[in-house]
Amino acid sequence: MERRVAEQLRSALGPLGLEAHAFKVGWYNAVLQPAFHLPYPDDTLAFVVLSTPAMFDKALKPFVNKERLKIIRDPVDQCVFHHLSRVKEKFPDQRVDVMFDYEMLPSRKPKFLAQTAAHVAGAAYYYQRKDVKLDPWGKKKIFGVCIHPKYGGWFAIRALLLFPDIQVPFLEQPAPVDCVSTEEKRIELLEQFNFHWQDSRYRDIIEVKERYSEEQKVYFATPPGERFRLLGLSQ
């Protein structure tokens, strides 16, 4: 069942520059405090959805051109919502719950921790302070960051798809690719991400096979309120 669902998602999302990686809810809940647990049985099938560099041209631009008059909030969020809503329709006999990266609970906690989901699904390695043995930062707050083995930091985690009626007790957990394997490189990555994230150098911590186009870099570097203009939209 998991394989069939994964193939359907791959055929629906791949042409849009989106990836879906399977995991069990129990893998996610096992590494988090109870306050962040997903409220499903441990064997529930879930997928974390990533956007790759190709998403900008394959999904966002066509969506903007077609739905120009209907875009009233963040165009990328609205584009992903649109396409995942259509994906749900491909599973008429299944309940499919969708959580988006921008959604919050009433407690103001995020509905899910995106980087943890990507890590447990084997999609991208979540490098954190604990992955550095000789910590050089003292009392500074250091945030972790996911690195994709193909795209480095040139990707984003957009959503979860959960299939509450599909239990996959025998699904095997893939390990994420540890592509920033030296202590020196991990320190460099976390330094760049925490203190120089605007220049995007952390995204190229490994040799990447594909990165954002110049147009896409400008788009995401522009304050959200001004991005509408870049797409030819009025706010």
Automatic annotation (TrEMBL):
InterPro entries: MMACHC. Its main location: cytoplasm. One of its GO terms (biological process) is cobalamin metabolic process. It is found in: Cytoplasm. Its EC number is 1.16.1.6, 2.5.1.151. Its cofactor is FAD; FMN. The keyword Cytoplasm applies. PANTHER family: CYANOCOBALAMIN REDUCTASE _ ALKYLCOBALAMIN DEALKYLASE (PTHR31457:SF2), METHYLMALONIC ACIDURIA AND HOMOCYSTINURIA TYPE C PROTEIN (PTHR31457). This is Cyanocobalamin reductase / alkylcobalamin dealkylase.
